[in-house]
Specification:
Chain lengths: 107, 107, 107, 107, 107
């Protein structure tokens, strides 16, 4: 699964029938610094996530499982809302992928 | 799912039988600035999309589900036509992935 | 699906039994300028494609469906031979992903 | 499968029911030099891995199989804990992807 | 499928039960110049491949099919050992992805 930030919504009147009634959220994939990693994606919300929240999302069949729609036109879904990320600061330093200030972005 | 722009069509006389009768559209994946992100793809249309439209597309089994062809030679399909993208301008600014002028490209 | 050019063949005497009897083609993924995009892949031919041809290929279960081998060791297959690509020149220009000279590479 | 280092944990109170009771580990994908390769991912632990350990992880259905949850909202899982990596130094040199000092990072 | 070079092995005492008894090989993905393309992966051998050999590998369900373990924690497997790569030199030149000296690396 990946870490992302919900940053918007999509309105699409014409869409696959299995997407009707689902909230379609624009989510920005993030790295451990909580900075963008690749392009934003559109995904189905399955846990009541809102704009601004830090989330876990899944792809493929895992997303359809979360949405309870194994036959759906869904390939990405939000499957959790992150309360806290507990990282080992020493490894973040070795790898140069964090600076201990990530928590500023958590709220 | 991903955001893309339909920018053309493909004609292929010799093709898998499960692709016969399907409209094969060339779609350019886009980021939130609505600028290209990676190479254009060929996908099946399932919602009546046309060249120039901004769409949502799905990959893998989700694409076959949308095309109602679980046994088909399909791995990408257009599953929605975007009316509006509602993004949180403050996050776009923090992330440097938008400038508030995205709407110019919507039509 | 993706656009690619068949540029060779692979001979592999020792291989999975589900690959025996299949033509294994080396295919270069291309962007809309018909220039290389990423590394060449090895795929099963299902439509009678030959070296030099511009093709559509699919990945995952779509490739196994095309090869009629749902239990096969296949994750990529050629599923169509491209006759023509009809692209909207104005979008190619906006996106900077084509220059109107793509047809030179079609034959 | 990929090589990664477990570098933290995620707490998510609201999450898909199939993730309840699973340990969600933040894992950094690594290359053969054991340096970061792409963004960290969130995955389910199925082998009793802990922070700091070098692991093998799998994606997609393989991850759900390891977690014994074929209907779960899981697309990545840790499936092994690495004791040793035995690499052919001559190829690492030819490819420029290792320097013989990888073992320093193993513990 | 992809082209790769087997460059080592992994020892993992604690691992998913479906991986027990399988040879876990470290394989470096290669481009047509037979130079590295992305990070090395860990995969199951299904054709008797050894360190130093040039191989074809598959991902996802294709890998589980090759390993005869549809319920396994496997997402990559070696499915063939390459004897020869026959490429069209003219296209390699057009695309700038080969120089006719690839054979030096074949043995």
């Amino acid at each position: 699964m990946n870490i992302g930030r919900v940053i918007g919504t999509v309105v699409a009147t014409r869409k696959d029938e299995t997407l009707i009634g689902s909230k379609l959220l624009i989510t920005q994939p993030l790295n451990l610094r909580l900075f963008p990693e690749g392009a934003a994606r559109v995904m189905v919300d399955t846990v009541g996530a809102g704009v601004g929240e830090l989330v876990i999302y899944a792809s493929g069949a895992a997303a359809r499982n979360a949405a309870k729609r194994s036959e759906g036109a869904i390939d990405m879904a939000i499957v959790g809302i992150i309360d806290t990320l507990n990282t080992d600061k020493s490894w973040l330093t070795v790898y140069g992928i964090g600076d201990g200030k990530e928590d500023e972005f958590l709220e």
